[in-house]
Amino acid sequence: MSDAEFKVQFAGPLVTFQDAGRRGHMRFGVPASGPMDRLAYKAALAALGASESATVIEVSMGGLMLDCVSGTLSLALAGGEFQIEVGNTRLNGWTVFEIEAGQKLSIRPGKAGSWAYLAFAGDVQAEHWLGQTATHSTSGFGGGQLRAGQRLRVENTQLREDRHGEIERPEFRDSAAPMRVVMGPQDRCFTDEILTSYRQSDFRLTDAYDRMGVRLSGPELTLGEALSIPSEPITRGSVQVSGDGVATVLLADHQTTGGYPKIATVLGCDTDRLTQLRAGDSLRFQPVTAEDAIGISRDYAAQLGAYLAEISEPKGTLAQRLMRENLISGYELSGEAIDKAR
Question: What would you report as the CA-atom Rg of the chain, rounded to the nearest whole angstrom?
Fold first, then answer.
């Protein structure tokens, strides 16, 4: 094992260090933060064979450019449809690949998706706050936002050739499906007409979108009467409605308490795919009962566990994969077989 060093040539807005999140501090007013798309974060680490709570770089649509100053190691990228360029080689996202000293890494958004996760086969050195590197974007606490000129060190690096190649994508996540919600806790404060409109109408994401939440455009969700409620704890996925009738879905860096009425709460397994939508994309909410939500969440957890276990299995070294393709000893491999093995 050795170390590697990178220099940040460019980092767009909201490109930050993140780990699994800072749990257990909400009662003190500290959000958990962590990845916007937890599935993609876990997939990048699992495919690389890294710790399930390791520090990664969360890449926004602003993109990221790194120079590898020293070292050789494997990296993984998963999330939206992002494009990778390593030296003169172009790759699609959802892949494990190698980088070495002297090469440049460029990550740019593609046709869909808002966030991608760059994982390192090694220990990323980033500042900890309350024991975690997860960055709270508003305060900057944690590992922080990456900036041009910054140096990034990765210790105990590894070259995991046995894991290089495409990462299988999760078939159980349907990006076009409605966002399932449990109604409440303040849905009683809206008229039946407004609740029907909420259930049956399409909404669109606006460009008022950051790690705290995203405002939606759609039917005006006016209250049945003036309402003043005490500030109360809120959670990720809460759909809160401000005084102007506009809905906002709260996300990874959401505030810990709030006084706006919440018409519904998006299931945790659906907030991840919601975060990958872009401004202008449409969505629809599908109410489910609390009992159904428990069953859905348990099924999702089982599917996710099986998926992560599958992609965490090494593919084998290049030589081993070439041997599997060359079933008859002594025959020269075709170019197609070599490409497939890679």
Answer: 22
Pairing of strands 285-287, 179-183: parallel
CA distance 86 to 80: 18
CA-CA distance, 80 to 85, in Å (whole number)? 15
Which residues, at least 6 apart from 299, have a Cβ–Cβ distance to it below 8 Å?
none
Give me 135's structure tokens: 């960055």
Sign of the alpha-carbon torsion through 289, 295, 297, 300: negative
CB 41 within 8 A of CB 117: yes
Look up residue 299 and give its amino acid: D
Instruction: List, run by run, the mean pLDDT of 10-residue segments along the chain (342 residues).
Output: 94 98 91 97 98 97 98 97 94 96 97 97 97 95 97 97 96 92 93 94 97 96 75 94 93 92 96 96 97 97 97 79 55 54 55
Full-model pTM: 0.91
- Tracing tokens 């520090």 back to the chain, one arrives at 55
d(CA 222, CA 195): 10
